[in-house]
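Weekly sync, protein design subgroup
Attendees: M.S., D.O., the rotation student, P.L. (late)

Item 1: inverse folding check
M.S. brought a backbone from last month's batch and wanted to see whether the design step gives back something sensible before we order anything. D.O. pointed out we never logged the input encoding, so this time it goes straight into the notes. Structure tokens as presented (324 positions):
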């Protein structure tokens, strides 16, 4: 099969399109003819060996796919011919065939295309975990999301209202990204420069209930300052590169929380959680209460460029690589 593979840890440009044998089915594994694979920031980090998961070289890039089941175990909840989305967590996605554990494979609603489907699981279930579980989002609360035109950002914009948020404020670095944020459902959009003052003004000085932060870096302390009393700052990632530190007196003085939100760790340590999440998110997708992502598509031959677009900050929305 054709696949996007990394054989040296030199960043996205080291991704090569190669012909390799199809992966073998394993007990409990579902074999999928892959139509599309999602790209996420951990893929960038993995091409440099900088992510917490470090697969042996060479490895196939990507952690999530959408496609058609070719073969499934007799007792699985999916069967040959089903349209599915699946997690390969992580690596082993951007090939024409992938194998995923049955508990990480889900039927895709008919109203969602395979290309859009490839952009759902990784980000939407992270955001669902962040807002529901770690952030305890209550009806009518205000959510602010950094990097709002990115993968996690646009997921937050698409999902927050359906999960109960009353208002979703997007923080983005450029006017072009502001357009993307609006198109994905932001109630308000502010630019990174001067974002704290703008948010204070928008909220009449009150601040926001939840900050979902996939960016980190030097805006972190201002994120704490942007919280309303009893607000929660969710630590999701560090695309800015720098890992911030917290002066805990700020938490005490304002009655606010800084909370880690590592979805992959939770999934691995809480069997059955993924299925619970899908049982809630799937009907919202199927009924259109959560709009499907509108991914930017790259053919497999341009997989390196697709991953590089997240590295060089030019990506907007979810990026997906198509294989069929
Ligand atoms: N905790 C979890 O369970 C979990 C799950 C999935 C992903 N993540 C993490 O979430 C983060 C976002 O992932 P993603 O797939 O949404 O990434 P993405 O699509 O590339 O979006 C990231 C956003 O970060 C902002 N950014 C600020 N400084 C940047 C820089 N120096 N380089 C690149 N982007 C920069 C950009 O927005 P502006 O240009 O508008 O600032 C960009 O749109 C990553 O750190 C990833 O590892 C965590």
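Designed sequence read out in the meeting:
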């Amino acid at each position: 099969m054709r696949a996007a593979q990394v054989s040296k840890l030199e960043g996205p440009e080291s991704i090569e399109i190669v012909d390799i044998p199809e992966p073998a089915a394993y007990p409990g594994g579902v074999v999928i003819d892959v139509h599309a694979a999602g790209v996420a920031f951990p893929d960038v980090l993995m091409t440099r060996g900088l992510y917490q998961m470090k697969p042996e070289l060479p490895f196939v890039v990507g952690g999530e796919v959408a496609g058609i089941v070719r073969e499934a175990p007799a007792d699985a909840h999916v069967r040959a011919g089903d349209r599915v989305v699946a997690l390969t967590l992580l690596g082993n996605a951007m090939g024409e065939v992938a194998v995923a554990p049955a508990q990480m494979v889900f039927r895709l609603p008919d109203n969602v295309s395979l290309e859009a489907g490839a952009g759902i699981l990784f980000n939407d279930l992270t955001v669902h975990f962040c807002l529901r579980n770690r952030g305890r989002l209550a009806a009518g609360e205000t959510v602010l999301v950094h990097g709002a035109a990115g993968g996690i950002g646009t997921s937050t914009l698409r999902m927050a209202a359906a999960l109960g948020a009353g208002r979703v404020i997007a923080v983005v670095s450029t006017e072009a990204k502001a357009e993307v944020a609006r198109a994905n459902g932001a109630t308000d959009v502010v630019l990174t420069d001067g974002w704290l003052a703008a948010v204070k003004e928008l909220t009449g000085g009150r601040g926001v209930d939840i900050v979902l932060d996939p960016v980190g870096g030097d805006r972190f302390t201002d994120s704490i300052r942007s919280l309303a009393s009893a607000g929660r700052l969710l630590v999701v990632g560090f695309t800015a590169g720098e890992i911030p530190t917290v002066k805990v007196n700020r938490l005490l003085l304002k009655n606010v929380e800084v909370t880690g939100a590592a979805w992959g760790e939770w999934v691995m340590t809480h069997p059955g959680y993924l299925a619970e999440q899908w049982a809630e998110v799937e009907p919202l997708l199927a009924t259109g209460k959560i709009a499907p992502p509108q991914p930017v598509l790259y053919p497999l031959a341009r997989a390196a460029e697709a991953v590089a677009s997240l590295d060089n900050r030019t990506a907007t929305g979810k990026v997906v690589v198509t294989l069929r």
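Discussion: The first strand starts at residue 2 and ends at 6. Residues 40-42, 122, 126, 147, 149-153, 172-173, 177, 192, 214-215, 236-241, 261-264, 310, 313, 315 surround NAP (CB under 6 Å).
Action: P.L. to compare against the previous round before Friday.
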